[in-house]
């Protein structure tokens, strides 16, 4: 059975005293394949350390997203520019967002999001880069965000019907909104292009102080033959390097 490819979301571990070059070297030594959500000025250093840059933002705004037609032109331009960067730096995934509801029905929001993604799907296919629509919770962290349930996200992905448009399934966010993580992963893994982890509540370490039981979740991911990255996006309670070592071992089945 194949090993899960693991990644680290830089923003979670970027704290005083953590130097990027040392962090990248330690991540590589531990066994990580990738880092993600890096500022542009760290890309070359990460690549030099032998790490893939697993994700980058496809467009800047999270709240003003693809669920409104008036945003499509500017977002499409942003995505097309970032597709070029992704090809140059061999970044496999660009993250895109639905945006907030602001009174928009789920049906209309989904239709608009499908329409917007259809405008860039062919370009993503041509570049060999996957656009991953991120699932976020609207209960705690991202009030009013529309892509806040897996079923809504899957509806959009099916509506676009492109091998280069998938979901970013964030376990922390979906535990808050709907739970049933393992069943959902098994049912919808074909529509998922990237996965994020963190403990809940609090987006902290994946230890025995939080409610998610990660070992069987990681086994379910591995058994599904999922070939994308699993990116750890938690904020360590203690030492950064001890935390990333522990997270790696937990996921290294």
Task: Tell me what the structure shows.
With 253 residues, this protein is an alpha/beta fold. The chain has one domain: Alpha-Beta Barrel (TIM Barrel). 43% of the residues lie in helices and 15% in strands. It is built from ten helices and nine strands. The chain has a nine-stranded parallel sheet. Helix 9 (214-223) links the parallel strand 8 and strand 9. Helix 2 (20-30) packs parallel to helix 10, helix 4 (72-89) packs parallel to helix 5 and helix 5 crosses helix 6. The mean pLDDT is 97.
Q: Could you outline the blueprint of secondary structure elements for this entry?
A:
Layout: E1 5-9, H1 10-13, H2 20-30, E2 34-36, H3 43-48, E3 52-53, E4 55-57, H4 72-89, E5 93-96, H5 106-127, E6 130-134, H6 150-160, E7 165-170, H7 171-177, H8 181-188, E8 192-197, H9 214-223, E9 229-232, H10 240-251
Parallel strand pairs: 1-2, 1-9, 2-3, 4-5, 5-6, 6-7, 7-8, 8-9
